[in-house]
Amino acid sequence: MKSLTALAALALACLPAFGAEQVNPACDLLTENEARAALGATARESIMNAEMTGSSDCSWVSEQGGSIALSRARGPAFQGDAMPADGYRNWRETFAASGAVEDLAGLGDAAFLFVDGTVETRAIVGILRQGNVLLIGTQGVSRAALMQLAELAAGRV
Q1: Which phi and psi angles does 149 have, rounded to 5°?
Q2: What's the number of CA atoms in the CB half-sphere (13 Å) around residue 107?
Q3: Within a domain: residue 146?
Q4: pLDDT in tens, 34-51
Q5: Number of structural domains found in the chain
């Protein structure tokens, strides 16, 4: 499992895109315009990990330092007897061990919000929906904007 530090690094990373022809289900869950609206600034999309064995990552980074990172795991990402609910539970427990976790309703089968400091400093929403585990990490994004991003992404699963 990734640690909070690894997810924060993912949210702050700014890797060049590998090319538009790559399949990336994470990038399909939010548009660049939606990321731009949440960040309040121009945002550049970066494919962090094109879909490989059911897992993909995408990020949007603004020139002002705000960022959004979205990770999506589904299907073959869960090996052996592991199920999406197990992956979700592991993430939730990891974040709960690092601080307060708030349960959220209406986003899927289960969802949580983890805040590191303030929502604007760093926040993560975890969502279990229809066999997918989504993690949306943000920096420099308001709670209202983060919740809107979560609703949009979950609605597109």
Answers
A1: -60, -45
A2: 25
A3: no
A4: 999 999 887 777 766 555
A5: 1
